UniProtKB/TrEMBL annotation:
It comes from Paenibacillus solisilvae. Its EC number is 1.7.1.-. GO terms for molecular function: oxidoreductase activity. This is Nitroreductase family protein. Residues 16-189 form the Nitroreductase domain. Keywords: Oxidoreductase. The keyword Oxidoreductase applies.
Amino acid sequence: MSQNASVSTLTAEEVIKARHSVRQYKPNVKIPENTLNEILELAALAPSSWNIQHWRFLVIQEQAQKDLVKGIAYGQQQVSDASVVVVILGDLEANLTGHQIYGEAVDAGHLKPEIRDTLVGQIDGAYKNEQVARDEANKNAGLAAMQLMLAAKAKGYDTVAMGGFDKNRLVEALKIPSRYIPVMMIPIGEAATPARPTARLSLDQLVINESF
């Protein structure tokens, strides 16, 4: 029996505590399409600035494609062995999505046109600054990436967040349009060996109350 088949329903707290970074996966494990779509749909419920959903999920399942990406990820074996590799992309032109979202809200009668115009104007104004666009792409795609990992764990699968890959080579190899930037790579699958224990800083080291 695969590990995900034996996973009972976990609370949100249990999922957070159970998620660990796994770097060794059982090869040849297939995640059912409906389960993978559920994971992606849950990830897409992450919050985002102006609700313009700066993330895109580039999903890699074919073995030859995973092996190609493994080379771009400096030979890290988990990329080849995981069931799926999701490249989290950040949208540098997410303001265009704002036009779509707020236009549809007006068409549905949920928003007044003048409010739409104000919001779209604010978004377009912010996106004239290239650094703002890049910061927003990274920040909001990161929120979706974390939600993806928690969703996968809730469905019985393990993950690891990877930043160790050649972004320029990945863009070229996967023909990623200039509108999008690779933020991180997340293998998803069944652990071949348990994640190693990791220490966490105590709250007295992490929390600053009111001011430094």
